[in-house]
């Protein structure tokens, strides 16, 4: 079956919307210029230590924790981006391979430098897509469905947590308030 | 539309068996939107988890630091007594071995018969032997916030004591006849949690056996009610209810953590007697429970020297407080920790707390005298029945209550120390991820034990699982050591409303634990995760601010080290370093920055104005020397503990002279000079209606911390809760 061309009324971003960076070279930490200030690096160390679960406080975290740490520090990479900077590890590696602080820094720097982080407006814009009536609200059910089936799918309990207390009696969500809620942490 | 994956997000519904598209949204935009939201969500979750983690960190560090303090204090007091110092006389009574020897004399001392119950009393009136319906009635009464009359309390405690005396050191339980056993962890006076467990799981009975794994009292406000309920069930179903002793079943710990205060408050007339009786009862609580000879349930844990065969043989009642070995003639090292030990404890950086302190003398006795028992020796002992144990106990002599170590022919001084260490380890130890076994410096008692110790212990004793409590866990339970060790904690909302769930276990003949979790408060069900985390976090930060303020003088000196020019400003980096060192709390100070300090645009802190944000409640405190106030605030728990010890008749009131003595004692403990003048200033600031006496409660109340801004705005005084 020949694939049909899909209609795209708006010009899509030059890159495919898929989060997978196709044809990008492997991540090389040595290529990354560290531009953080000394203060920032101290802050990162503190956070790194909080995630360090090694018995002797060796300042190491697992690959699996890396994404969480980057996010805890205020960035919001996609899972694919995290996998990329980790060198596309195998699923088994996530719990066993360790990362020390010096290896973490270039990874974090790369994520921090990445463009297209998504501002408040982008976020609201994204949600407006689902606002069929153009009244500032989206259907909670719809949003749930999308988040669980598209992109980097969320699990049901994650969606529940996300939506907790956001829907009104009709199951609608005021998305500007919703965005403020998500971004204010 | 052909076959193949559709790239647009189309929502379909079934109509007449065909898919009917509901909406069509352009593919790329939808995808982009979804990914954006997901990214932000994941960030949100990660940041929340981080906040939760450091909040937990704060509470736990402060809790353990408090426990460590109490042990240091106790050791210090012991030192005073052993070295016959004058202050020692003031407090020696807590170390005095019970003079009365015979059972009958004790029973007369604790006699309840001459206590009249007034007509007006509307609580339960118990008759003995207890029946099931009476116990159910008791639970109901407590649910309705009634209080049991002291006469019945004493009677019930006496009956409990009689029963506990014939129980072995290690309860042996079996899951025969497909019975499932329910196991509960720390309750800490939180009656709501116990009632919730009973509601979900049923009350103890022959079909519903229970094991309660210690720490029934302290911190929560209904400790005595929990004890009375547990003891009642024990009396009615002695074969189906099993209690293990926890580290808080200890009158010295109770002095600091609220149980003593609770009992004296609820039972003004007979509280002292009740506490004395409980002191003995605690020492008679069994130390552990073994299920089907395969699962060990113990409050704290084990160490590399734990030997169940040895434990089976000791006289557990000789250890009324586990914080100290029974008195020995010689004042050599071993059990007595000299003042030098205190120094070394505080010097050990918390960063290295899990590191092998190979140069640290093990302060709790030598291992050499102890012999490893073989598997066979243990099984032989395990098979001993309750009757045989009773017989052995009776054979030991007419005065099982005598605490004279000399009279016990089976153990010399060395064995006493080993026995003491065995109990201490079982009640105070914590598991760690790394192999090995080190003294638990954070708490001040017991060990940290590693997975290799677990393996060795389990194989030596032919066991498969250790269930312990002692540490609060967010989900109510947590496995470690390759699922061979399970921590179980049953006090929900322990640090704060919404901080954690509680859990209990059901264990059937297959010995696979089945968990039930809960949170005992209507309020928590309403809170979203964000709100619970927020609330707990605020509470932790409040407690942390108090600690900072309490260490004001120490901090200012440390800051001035970095501010040689005396500008009143230091860099944030220096602040973080100073605070970490002075407070001895291993916390992520940098991450807490925004919550604790306001920095100037050039990342500096005006530390004097920072301190001025908090102030004292007492109006008459201007004339009191600042360092005295600081000391008082920083060590209020210790001070209060000493007050209670000095207050021998438990009246809640101290004479001026005793008050002075207490301060001198505190000064010695802290190695600080507190002048008589300073003490007199303190006395003046307290409104003493009574002649020459000070009300302890009133005194402690007068020195609470308040938020100065609130005070100035004319709000009602914001008094911070001293939960720690």
From TrEMBL, chain A:
Transmembrane segments: none annotated. The keyword Zinc does not apply. SUPFAM superfamilies: EF-hand. GO terms for molecular function: calcium ion binding. InterPro entries: CALM/Myosin/TropC-like (IPR050230), EF-hand-dom_pair (IPR011992), EF_hand_dom (IPR002048). Residues 1-29 are annotated as: Disordered. One of its GO terms (cellular component) is myosin II complex. Keywords: Motor protein, Muscle protein, Myosin. The keyword Membrane does not apply. Residues 1-10, 17-29 have a biased composition (Basic and acidic residues). Gene3D superfamilies: EF-hand. It comes from the Eukaryota. Residues 118-153 form the EF-hand domain. PANTHER family: ATRIAL MYOSIN LIGHT CHAIN, MYOSIN LIGHT CHAIN 1, 3. This is Myosin, light chain 13. It comes from Clupea harengus (Atlantic herring). The lineage of its organism: Eukaryota, Metazoa, Chordata, Craniata, Vertebrata.
TrEMBL record, chain B:
Residues 376-385 have a biased composition (Polar residues). Residues 325-417 are annotated as: Disordered. One of its GO terms (molecular function) is protein serine/threonine phosphatase activity. It is an enzyme of class 3 (hydrolase). Transmembrane segments: none annotated. GO terms for biological process: detection of stimulus involved in sensory perception; negative regulation of MAPK cascade. Its cofactor is Mn(2+). Keywords: Calcium, Hydrolase, Manganese, Metal-binding, Repeat. It catalyses: O-phospho-L-seryl-[protein] + H2O = L-seryl-[protein] + phosphate; O-phospho-L-threonyl-[protein] + H2O = L-threonyl-[protein] + phosphate. SMART domains: EFh, IQ, PP2Ac. Residues 550-585, 634-669, 674-709 form the EF-hand domain. Belongs to the PPP phosphatase family. The keyword Nucleus does not apply. Its EC number is 3.1.3.16. It comes from the Eukaryota. PANTHER family: SERINE/THREONINE-PROTEIN PHOSPHATASE 5-RELATED, SERINE_THREONINE-PROTEIN PHOSPHATASE. This is Serine/threonine-protein phosphatase with EF-hands. Residues 402-411 have a biased composition (Low complexity). It comes from Clupea harengus (Atlantic herring).
């Amino acid at each position: 079956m020949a694939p049909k061309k899909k209609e795209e009324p708006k010009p899509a971003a030059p890159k495919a919307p898929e989060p997978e960076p196709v044809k990008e070279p492997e991540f090389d930490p040595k290529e990354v210029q560290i531009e953080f200030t000394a203060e920032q690096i101290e802050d990162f160390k503190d956070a790194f230590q909080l995630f360090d679960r090694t018995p002797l406080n060796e300042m190491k975290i697992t690959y699996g924790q890396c994404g969480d740490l980057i996010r805890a520090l205020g960035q919001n990479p996609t899972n694919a981006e995290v996998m990329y900077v980790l060198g596309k590890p195998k699923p088994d590696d996530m719990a066993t391979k360790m990362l020390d602080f010096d290896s973490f820094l270039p990874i974090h720097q790369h994520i921090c430098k990445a463009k297209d982080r998504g501002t408040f407006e982008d976020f609201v814009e994204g949600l407006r897509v689902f606002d069929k009536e153009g009244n500032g609200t989206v259907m909670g059910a719809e949003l749930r469905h999308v988040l669980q089936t598209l992109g980097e799918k969320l699990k049901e309990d994650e969606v529940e947590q996300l939506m907790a207390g956001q829907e009104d009696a009709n199951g609608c969500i005021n998305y500007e308030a919703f965005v403020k809620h998500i971004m204010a942490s | 539309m052909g076959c193949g994956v559709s790239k647009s997000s189309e929502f379909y519904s079934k109509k007449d068996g065909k898919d009917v598209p509901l909406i069509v949204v352009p593919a790329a935009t939808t995808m982009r939107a979804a990914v954006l939201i997901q990214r932000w969500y994941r960030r949100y979750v990660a940041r929340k988890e981080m906040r939760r983690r450091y909040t937990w960190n704060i509470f736990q560090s402060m809790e353990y630091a408090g426990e460590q303090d109490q042990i240091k204090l106790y050791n210090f007091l012991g030192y005073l007594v052993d070295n016959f110092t004058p202050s020692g006389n003031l407090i020696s009574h807590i170390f005095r071995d019970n003079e009365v020897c015979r059972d009958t004399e004790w029973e007369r001392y604790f006699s309840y018969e001459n206590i009249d119950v007034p007509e007006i009393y509307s609580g339960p009136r118990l008759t003995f032997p207890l029946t099931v319906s009476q116990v159910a009635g008791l639970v109901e009464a407590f649910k309705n916030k009634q209080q049991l009359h002291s006469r019945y309390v004493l009677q019930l405690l006496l009956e409990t004591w009689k029963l506990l005396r014939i129980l072995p050191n290690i309860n042996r339980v079996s899951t025969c006849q497909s019975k499932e056993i329910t196991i509960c962890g720390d309750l800490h006076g939180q009656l709501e949690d116990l009632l919730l467990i009973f509601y979900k799981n049923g009350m103890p009975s022959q079909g519903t056996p229970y094991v309660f794994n210690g720490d029934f009292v302290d911190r929560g406000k209904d400790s005595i009610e929990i004890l009375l309920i547990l003891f009642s069930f024990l009396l009615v179903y002695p074969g189906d209810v099993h209690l293990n002793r926890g580290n808080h079943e200890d009158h010295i710990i109770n002095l600091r953590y609220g149980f003593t205060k609770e009992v004296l408050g609820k039972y003004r007339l007979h509280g002292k007697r009740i506490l004395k009786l409980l002191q003995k009862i605690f020492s008679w609580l069994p130390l552990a429970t073994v299920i089907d000879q395969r699962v060990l349930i113990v409050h704290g844990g084990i160490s590399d020297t734990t030997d169940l065969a040895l434990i089976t043989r000791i006289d557990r009642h000789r250890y009324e407080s586990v914080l100290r070995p029974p008195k020995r003639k010689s004042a050599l090292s071993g059990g007595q920790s000299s003042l030098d030990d205190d120094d070394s404890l505080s010097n050990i950086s918390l960063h290295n707390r899990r590191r092998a302190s190979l140069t640290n003398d093990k302060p709790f006795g030598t291992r050499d005298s102890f012999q490893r028992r073989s598997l066979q020796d243990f099984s032989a002992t395990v098979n001993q029945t309750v009757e045989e144990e009773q017989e052995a106990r009776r054979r030991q002599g007419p005065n099982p209550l005598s605490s004279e170590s000399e009279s016990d022919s089976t153990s010399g001084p060395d064995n006493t120390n080993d026995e003491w260490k065995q109990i201490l380890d079982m009640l105070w130890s914590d598991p760690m991820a790394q192999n090995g076994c080190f003294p638990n410096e954070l708490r001040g008692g017991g060990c940290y034990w590693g997975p290799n110790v677990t393996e060795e212990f389990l194989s030596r004793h032919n066991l498969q699982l250790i269930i312990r409590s002692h540490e609060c866990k967010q989900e109510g339970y947590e496995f470690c050591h390759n699922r061979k060790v399970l921590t179980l904690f049953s006090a929900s909302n322990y640090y704060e409303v919404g901080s954690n769930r509680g859990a209990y276990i059901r264990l059937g003949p297959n010995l696979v634990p089945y968990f039930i979790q809960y949170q005992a408060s209507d309020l928590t069900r309403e809170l979203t995760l964000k709100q619970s985390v927020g609330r707990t976090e605020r509470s932790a930060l409040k407690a942390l601010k108090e600690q900072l303020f309490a260490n004001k003088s120490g901090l200012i000196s440390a800051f001035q080290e970095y501010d040689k020019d005396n500008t009143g400003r230091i860099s944030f980096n220096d602040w973080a370093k100073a605070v970490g060192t002075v407070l001895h709390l291993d916390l992520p100070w940098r991450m807490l920055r925004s919550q604790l300090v306001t920095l100037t645009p050039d990342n500096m802190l005006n530390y004097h104005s920072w301190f001025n944000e908090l102030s004292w409640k007492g109006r008459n405190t201007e004339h009191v020397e600042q360092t005295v106030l600081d000391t008082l605030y920083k060590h209020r728990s210790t001070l209060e503990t000493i007050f209670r010890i000095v207050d021998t008749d438990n009246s809640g009131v101290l004479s001026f002279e005793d008050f002075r003595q207490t301060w001198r004692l505190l000064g010695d403990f802290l190695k600080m000079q507190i002048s008589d003048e300073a003490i007199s200033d303190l006395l003046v600031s307290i409104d003493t209606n009574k002649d020459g006496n000070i009300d302890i409660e009133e005194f402690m109340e007068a020195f609470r911390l308040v938020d100065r801004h609130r005070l100035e705005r004319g709000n009602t005084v914001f008094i911070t809760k001293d939960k720690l």
